[in-house]
Amino acid sequence: DRLVAAAPDGEDRAVEAALRPRDLGEFIGQERVRGQLDLVLKAARARGATADHVLLSGAPGLGKTTLSMIIAAEMEAPIRISSGPAIQHAGDLAAILSSLQEGEILFLDEIHRMSRPAEEMLYMAMEDFRVDVIVGKGPGATAIPLELPPFTLVGATTRAGLLPPPLRDRFGFTAHMEFYAPAELERVIHRSAGLLDVEVRPEGAAEIAGRSRGTPRIANRLLRRVRDYAQVKGDGLVTREIAATALEVYEVDGRGLDRLDRSVLNALLRLFAGGPVGLSTLAVAVGEERETVEEVAEPFLVREGLLARTPRGRVATPAAWSHMGLTPPRQRGE
Ligand code: ADP
User: Fold this and answer.
1) Where is this region: Small ATPAse domain (RuvB-S) (predicted)?
2) ipTM given for this complex
C-alpha cells in the first residue's frame, strides 16, 4: 500500500478511467512510440485492414493500458481486455479468441505470465487467425480447427525480454515505453488537475512531478493526496509549498523515495558505512523480508543511482550520501 507503488490500487482503478487520454494527440510524452504508432495505425486504416499486432513493454503505470484503448479508439474498433494470469488454460484463451469480432483489439496485460499451452495456441492465432480446439482426451482426442476473424493483439509486458522469442517475433510492432521526464509529468499533472477541477500552480506541479518516479500513475496519485491536503489545510490551491508539505506528511521525499526506500538507505549508510553488505544482512537491519528489500525498494534506488548491486554486496553511491544529508567516511589512503 505504498503511495509510490507503480501498480494500481483500488482508488486508482476507480479514477483512472476519467484521467485516461482518449487519443494519440492527448497522450503526453513517449514521442517516438507515439509517432511510430500513428504511422502503423494510419497505414492500416488507409488499407482498410486491421493493424499489426503490437507489443508494449515498460514498467507499470507508464500508459500501456491507456495506449491499447487509444489504439482501439483510433481504429474505431471494440476492445477486449484480459491478462496473462487470467488465462491459465488454453481453453480460456480459445473462448476469448472465438468470440472476437472482426477488427477487435485484444489487450493482454502481463502477457509473459500466460500458461505455456495458451501461449502456443496464441502463436497460431496471431499468425494464421486460426486455433485448434482439442476435443476429448487421450488417444481419442481430436483437433478441430477454428477460423478466427482478423484481430489486433496488443500485448503488454514489463520487459520484452521475458517473452519467449517465438511469441515476441509474432508482433509486427514493438514499442518500448520509457520513464517520463519531469516536464512531461508536469503536463500530466496539469491535465489531470483540469479534469479533477483542482487549481495547480506551475511550481506546485513541478514539485509533485519531481517526486513521481517518472510514472504518470504515481503523479496522478500524489496529485490527489496533495489536493486533499490543499483542501483541508489551505484554500484548495496547490502551490509549491502546499505540495512539498503535503508530500512530507505522506513521507514521499523530494526525489520520490518513501519510508521503506529511506530506511534501506539509512541502514546501508549508518550501520554499514555504505557497504558492501549482503542483502540478507541489510534486510534484517531494516526489519523487512529479503524479497521486500530486493524487489520493492532496490529497483528504484538502483535506477536513481543511489545504490549499486555488486558481487560483494550492496553499496551506496556518493549520491546516496548526499541525498540523505550525510558525509561519507574517508576512504583509506585519502
Ligand atoms: P499501465 O497499463 O502501463 O500500467 P496505464 O495505462 O493504466 O498504465 O496508466 C496509468 C494512468 O496514468 C492512467 O490512468 C493515465 O491517466 C495515466 N497516464 C499514463 N500515461 C499517460 C500519458 N502519456 N499521458 C497522460 N496520462 C497518462
Assistant:
1) 181-251
2) 0.99
